[in-house]
Amino acid sequence: MTNTGQVDYTDERPASFTDDLASSLAVGTYNGDATNGAEYERPVLSWAGAVGVGESVTVTYSVTLRSAGEIRNVVGTPDGSGANCSTGSTDEDCATTTTVVPPGLAFTGGAPWIAGGVAGAALLALGLWLVARRRAENAVALQES
To answer: Is 7 left (phi over 0), alpha (psi -120 to 50) or beta?
Structure first.
């Protein structure tokens, strides 16, 4: 969170945000490790505090994933606060969508069996061609003798 305004946020009039973790919790578990005094009350992570003009506060947290899926993370700021993430905001800085894939090989969009099937068919065709070629060479050799 960065105060880009012209007035300091104070402890009496704090800057604040909420982060609804419901989407993350559908595929994972919050690890209870939010930084800079953020508080968690399932499923919302929230923070409020003083931020001087031009200053920033960074809040981080982690989620341990238990399955693949899509996580939509939306941050909200109080209506009327002058912040860019108030209710109904379309600011792209207020939301992210992350697709979580299973660990292991990189996801390329195709099923692994497709590549294996194509490779197998190519090797089979090559083998049949070599057998046919060898028979043709043997037939020519028999005719010449």
So the answer is: beta
Q: What gap in Å lies between CA 85 and CA 12, rounded to an integer?
A: 21
Angle at 53 between CA 50 and CA 59, to 5 degrees: 50
Query: Which amino acid is located at 112 in the chain?
Result: P
Terminal Cα distance for the chain, rounded: 90
> Is this model's pTM higher than 0.85 or not?
no
Q: How far is CA 99 from CA 61, 107, 139, in A?
A: 18, 11, 60
Q: What is the pLDDT at residue 46?
A: 94
Q: What is the 3-state secondary structure (H, E, C) of 58-72?
A: CCCCCEEECCCEEEE
Residue-wise pLDDT for 57-104, tens only, equals 999 999 998 888 888 888 888 887 778 888 788 888 888 888 888 766
Question: Using alpha carbons only, what angle is made at residue 37 by residues 64 and 65, rounded to the nearest 5 degrees?
Answer: 5
Contact 38, 14 (CB under 8 A): no
